[in-house]
Amino acid sequence: RLGSYSGTTIPPLLNSTSNNLYLNFQSDISVSAAGFHLEYTGLDSCPEPQTPSNGIKIGDRYMVGDVVSFQCDQGYSLQGHSHITCMPGPVRRWNYPIPICLAQCGGGMSDFSGVILSPGFPGNYPSSLDCTWTIKLPIGFGVHLQFVNFSTETIHDYLEVRSGSTETSTVIGRLSGPQLPASLFSTTHETSLYFHSDYSQNKQGFHIVYQAYQLQSCPDPRPFRNGFVIGNDFTVGQTISFECFPGYTLIGNSALTCLHGISRNWNHPLPRCEALCGGNITAMNGTIYSPGYPDEYPNFQDCFWLVRVPPGNGIYINFTVLQTEPIYDFITVWDGPDQTSPQIGQFSGNTALESVYSTSNQILIKFHSDFTTSGFFVLSYHGKCDKFHVFTVRTDYCRKKTHEKITLITFFKKICYY
């Protein structure tokens, strides 16, 4: 609706933006007047804008004030203004020139799909080009490159594709000539394409469609024998760590990261937790397993464990599992750091023993197996301030004994509480 008018005031000049105009005059049953006299003339529209090559035009009205917009096909960039407006005046014209769509020399992309074109496509590319396109996606995604068209001067003009965005990244394709290449798969979240042309023999170039795809996860390391895994995300770029149960030693790297690549792999082999043949132990409490436990121990083993706790503490030993070849496979314990120390005992067979303890803060444990029957054992130990000390009672200061059992030299048991 352009307006509604009544009375004696002459309305302003009106412009219709349509090729049709509807006027409605209404009078009632009373006062009459001279009425109205109006003249109309058709207005020129702006010239119809051309649709740019490799693009589209949006809008089909070209009167004063109308707006037409433009978009380019995938792979092309708009050169000029994306919106133009029909301007008033004696001569109808648009406020900006019609834009054009061109394939650019290089650029950055972050969409999950897209098109990469050589400069000037579908025409021939210019001479002396050095163009780089980079596709950057979230970590965990790779890129599938499919070639729709490809034609370059053999050898001298080429396209180099890298799985990564640096000059040291892996080259997954160096393409040249008239043959349409097979699809390429980049296995990192960043992919770069470098195109070079020399000074002669320009060709049509290339039309590439790319599509992101989600990379597979690295293999699940669980179950992790004799230990546990910290972390449950096994996708590309993620790091997990490993720890062993008490009594086992971690062999390998304690932390692994899932790598990019054609196949999903961790950056190091999976570690393992093993019960080793011997070692130096300084923890206040712990467990010692026969080599290879829970599997049977091997033959011909001579294993030494030196257990050391802080001075002033003894060490209690308790066999929770004992199953060895009687006599020939045995565990020997010394009350000290070497085999010249007093021997606490030698244990063999399959009878679980009562706890034994040392008077020293160090014990040496040796396990020996011969060439025949195998078995296994598990012993636990804990340091405790519970040792025997020798005191001398001087009777010249003791007029009366407080206990009849106290003699000049008596062993007292000292018990410490924490």
TrEMBL record:
SUPFAM superfamilies in the cross-refs: Complement control module/SCR domain, Spermadhesin, CUB domain
UniProtKB keywords: Disulfide bond, Repeat, Signal, Sushi
InterPro entries (UniProt xref): CUB_dom (IPR000859), SEZ6_CSMD_C4BPB_Regulators (IPR051277), Sperma_CUB_dom_sf (IPR035914), Sushi/SCR/CCP_sf (IPR035976), Sushi_SCR_CCP_dom (IPR000436)
Domain CUB: 105-213, 277-395
Domain Sushi: 44-103, 216-275
Residues that span the membrane, as ranges: none
Organism, as annotated: Buteo japonicus
Protein name from the UniProt record: CUB and Sushi multiple domains 3a
A Pfam match: Sushi
Superkingdom of the organism of origin: Eukaryota
